[in-house]
Specification:
Elements lengths: L1 H14 L1 H14 L1 H7 L2 E2 H8 L3 H13 L3 E4 L2 E4 L1 H6 L9 H15 L2 H7 L9 H4 L3 H26 L1
Antiparallel strand pairs: 1-3, 2-3
Helix pairs in contact: 2-7, 4-5, 7-10
């Protein structure tokens, strides 16, 4: 019976993974980690700085702490070491641009996967990069995402060959 329960738990974790991703994406979009990189803050201070509704903001902060992205000590939140390294916009190792690209560009089409499987027809997107680059905002988001996702490898290469 325990093996079945473990299988069910693994399946539930898989199915609810989007909750964790959306909490991360939201915090990156709000630039929460850059705010906390400057100094630890209370939930009330964070909500006021970012224009969040207090109850909902508190829930987001607690969720991020449960996910290991924030630490809460004495009523103040700080970034975890991983968040400080990769999610603070001022760091060279920042990868948040890729997460924003995932949220706004990659995530929506995946909700239409059943239709793609049924019809074989593209559900969204542009045919060529030339079409993609006609939309300057989309092109900038894409370039920011590619910069973000390649930053850790670029830093490692620079350190290795410096």
């Amino acid at each position: 019976m325990q093996q079945q329960d473990a299988g069910l738990q693994a399946m539930m974790d898989l199915a609810s993974g989007f909750w964790r991703a959306q909490a991360l994406f939201t915090a990156v979009e709000l630039d929460l980690f850059s705010l906390l990189a400057r100094k630890p803050a209370t939930a009330a201070d964070i909500c006021a700085s970012l224009g969040l509704r207090p109850g909902a903001g508190d829930d987001l902060l607690d969720s991020l702490a449960a996910l290991g992205l924030l630490r809460r000590d004495g009523g103040r939140y700080t970034n975890s070491p991983t968040a400080a390294r990769y999610l603070d916009r001022t760091q060279e190792s920042y990868v948040g641009g890729f997460f924003l690209f995932m949220r706004h560009t990659l995530y929506p089409p995946w909700s239409r996967l059943p239709e793609l499987i049924r019809t074989g027809e593209r559900q969204e997107g542009r045919e060529t990069f030339s079409e993609w680059y006609r939309d300057l905002d989309a092109a900038c988001r894409f370039m920011d995402a590619m910069d973000s996702v390649s930053a850790p490898a670029a830093l490692a290469l620079a350190q290795r060959f410096d």
